[in-house]
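Researcher: Let's do a round of design. I'm pasting the structure tokens now; please hold your answer until I've finished.
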């Protein structure tokens, strides 16, 4: 009997529907979990993604032949029935449920189970086989509640403003940056954004996602008049000549990898905020339990360690190689991608 999904050199393939999920090579039909570059790649013949994910995908990929689907809507493709369900990772992100002949598989993409108040909250999907990430699949990775991180962020910003310094906060332009923005109080001071982040903000605001007012940094921005402001920028801009033109500053990186002191030191940031758009160790285990899946396929991250732990719990777990990344930056162990 042909399995519902197979793992090929192009990506995760459904023979019954003749489509791929998040393929990393060119295919005719691609179902996409979310708009990050390691999951939504250029060059596919046709794309299917949530209606909420498509605007950012179009901004990043240019003109594409794409169709949107609502969360929970069932769509027949060949002999397969598919539906998209919230993954809680970034706005528009989805888990993809595939059913063939009564057997159900779910491809989770990237996910987190904490409701961040901005992205569509994660919804467990019951299935027979579940394909999970393991970006943070080690017991050391345990996240504090978002409200705690928001309080830490506010205190750091206030301290810098009192000492007449600009606060630089490094975050990826889709998902993490907007989540952090939603945690900031604009009454505390000016919020400025790098153009790469503001371009994504523009798209999401047009879709109705609520974000505080921000100022896009342009060549005309007076760099020396921004003391007390907080500036959101891509991680690559931290410590750059672009950042140094703003004068005295403090730099922070927001990432789950900030849990590891060695990576925090290599990043060179003054401060690290431990916040991730991926599930932590307890979150991964909780999500898997809630699926009631008989088979677990582990992708990208600490795959061997996490799959071994699942096996010790009595689950049927196996590692599946993929070309997906995770929440990273160049310092993340063995990973490259974005969150």
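Researcher: That's everything. Go ahead.
Model: Designed sequence:
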């Amino acid at each position: 009997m042909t399995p519902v999904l197979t793992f090929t050199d192009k990506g995760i393939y459904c023979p019954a529907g003749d489509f791929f999920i998040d393929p990393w090579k060119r295919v005719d039909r691609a179902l996409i979990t979310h708009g990050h570059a390691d999951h939504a790649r250029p060059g596919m013949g046709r794309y299917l993604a949530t209606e909420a994910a498509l605007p950012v995908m179009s901004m990043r990929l240019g003109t594409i032949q794409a169709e949107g689907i609502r969360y929970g809507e069932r769509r027949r493709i060949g002999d397969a029935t598919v539906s998209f369900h919230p993954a809680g990772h970034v706005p528009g992100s989805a888990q993809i449920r595939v059913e063939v002949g009564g057997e159900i598989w779910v491809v989770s993409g990237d996910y987190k189970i904490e409701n961040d108040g901005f992205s569509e909250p994660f919804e467990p999907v019951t299935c027979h086989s579940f394909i999970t990430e393991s970006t943070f699949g080690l017991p050391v990775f345990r996240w504090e509640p978002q409200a705690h991180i928001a309080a830490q962020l506010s205190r750091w910003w206030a301290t810098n403003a009192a000492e007449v310094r600009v606060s630089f906060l490094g975050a990826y332009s889709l998902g993490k940056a907007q989540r952090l923005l939603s945690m900031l109080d604009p009454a505390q001071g000016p919020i400025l954004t790098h153009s790469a982040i503001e371009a994504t903000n523009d798209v999401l605001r047009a879709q109705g996602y609520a974000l505080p007012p921000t100022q896009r940094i342009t060549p005309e921005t007076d760099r020396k008049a921004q003391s007390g402001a907080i500036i959101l920028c891509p991680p690559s801009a931290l410590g750059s000549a672009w950042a140094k033109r703003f004068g005295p500053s403090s730099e922070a990186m927001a990432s789950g990898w900030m849990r590891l002191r060695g990576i925090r030191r290599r990043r060179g940031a003054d401060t690290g905020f431990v916040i991730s758009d991926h599930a932590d160790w307890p979150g991964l285990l909780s999500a898997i339990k809630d699926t009631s899946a008989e088979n677990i396929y582990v992708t990208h991250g600490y795959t061997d360690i996490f799959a071994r732990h699942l096996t010790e719990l009595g689950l049927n777990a196996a590692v599946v190689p993929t070309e997906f990344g995770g929440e990273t930056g160049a310092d993340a162990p063995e990973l490259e991608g974005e969150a």
